[in-house]
Every structure is written in C-alpha cells, then in structure tokens.
C-alpha cells in the first residue's frame, strides 16, 4: 500500500482536486483506493456529494478513541463513493478541536499512520487531503505517507505560501523524524497569462530540485466534475487536465518503487 499526502498551507491551490483526480485515475488502473479527509471543512466529502453530517462516523472518532480502537471501529467509518473501488474516510467539523485537546500529548503525530497500517490489506493506495493549516492533522498526514505532493497555484502570491510550506517540511525534518520526499506540482496554469508564466519561471529558479517537470493546466472540466460529484477522469475522460494528472501519476508511481507501482503501471 502506497500512501501519498497532498498538502499546502494555502487554500484554493488544487489540493482536493489533485486528491480526487489521482484517486480516480488509480481506480481506472484497477487499484483499490482510500481517500482520507483531514480537513475540518470536509471539502473532499462535499466534492463527492457526501455530507459529513450524514456520515456514520469520521476521522475525528478515530482520533478521539485512538487509544483502544478496534478494527471494526476503524472500518465502520469508511464509506463508499459513487465510484466503485474508491472509498472515503470522512472528515468532521470537530477535527478543528483536535489541536486543543490532543495537540500537546506525546505520540500524537503518529495516530493516522497507525490507523492506516491497520487498513493496508484493504487498499493499494491511500491519498490524504490536508487542511491549509499547520497543526496536529497536517503533522499526522505528513508522518503517515511515503510521498508528499505540494500543489502550488502558478500565481505570484501563492509562491509565498509555498515557501512557508517548504520551511514547515524542513522544520519537521529537523525534529528528528525523516520527512518523506516532496514534489512540487504547478497547478491552475494558464499559459496565456503573464502571471502564470512568471510564476512558473520563478518556481524553476527557486525550486529546481523538487519541481515536477510539467504543469496541471486550468481546465473548466475540473469544476464541472466537482459539481457532478465525480473525479475528473470518470466525469470527463481524457481532457487536457486529466491527461496532465495522468502524467503526474506516472511520475509518482515511478518514484514509488513499491507493489502498487508494478500493478498500476501494468493496469492490473
Ligand atoms: P484546495 O483544496 O487547495 O483548497 P481545490 O482543489 O478545492 O483547492 O480547488 C480550488 C478551486 O479551483 C475549486 O473550485 C476547483 O474546482 C478549482 N480548480 C482546481 N484545479 C483546477 C484546474 N486545474 N483548473 C480549473 N479549476 C481548478
Ligand atoms: Mg481542499
């Protein structure tokens, strides 16, 4: 099982869109996929047409009872989506209180990792969506994955947010525990605008080592897909934006070197 975390301390940069699009593509390649929503705003659930108020439970329950969780309790909060093979571990508004209640306790950063380890027989891939806030949830998401994906909007102000995110990763790395490798993915790229072109050349200049070699273009199909509560690959097939995510997926799988890589690459 491969675990990827999609993170940026800025909102509106394409995190949730990246989670759902990569998840949709992995399912099309025959993978069993779990999406984990760690954002108290539950945007991932809303995207998929799943109202957090109507869920049987949420990630909050698992954190709250983390000391003596049974396998049944964990599996009971996972819900299907309207795409076969794609499941969701939903968020809840109450997640926003975790920093206050659990934030300072030792070992708090590894709860999600241990929950996911107990689900490894059920999934080939797990994609974790993050809130744009550095806190106990983001720390858990970063500690639970093998690969960090940082979407960054190709716009000047967004680059400041990126610097903050990279500093966070460096700071966590200094804390003793190794931080997984990260890849920076330029999103919402519009080649007709000077803003996009300038931001991209700035990214190439400032982050040459971690920058993905391509971009995710602006594509209205992403918004249409979210209105239809479907991942873009399932909703729109092979549009420009989906093709770009497909290339990104190939890149991520080539970096993984795990079981899921071989199976997804061969389509089985
Ligand atoms: P985040 O999770 O970082 O807050 P979202 O994925 O929710 O960002 O994206 C913010 C908005 O931008 C959403 O309305 C989404 O549909 C739209 N969006 C994201 N990526 C693209 C894209 N490549 N092209 C066009 N619209 C996009
Ligand atoms: Mg989001």
UniProtKB/TrEMBL annotation:
<dbReference type="InterPro" id="IPR050678">
    <property type="entry name" value="DNA_Partitioning_ATPase"/>
</dbReference>
<feature type="domain" description="AAA">
    <location>
        <begin position="1"/>
        <end position="172"/>
    </location>
</feature>
<protein>
    <submittedName>
        <fullName>Cobyrinic acid ac-diamide synthase</fullName>
    </submittedName>
</protein>
<dbReference type="InterPro" id="IPR027417">
    <property type="entry name" value="P-loop_NTPase"/>
</dbReference>
<dbReference type="InterPro" id="IPR025669">
    <property type="entry name" value="AAA_dom"/>
</dbReference>
<dbReference type="Pfam" id="PF13614">
    <property type="entry name" value="AAA_31"/>
</dbReference>
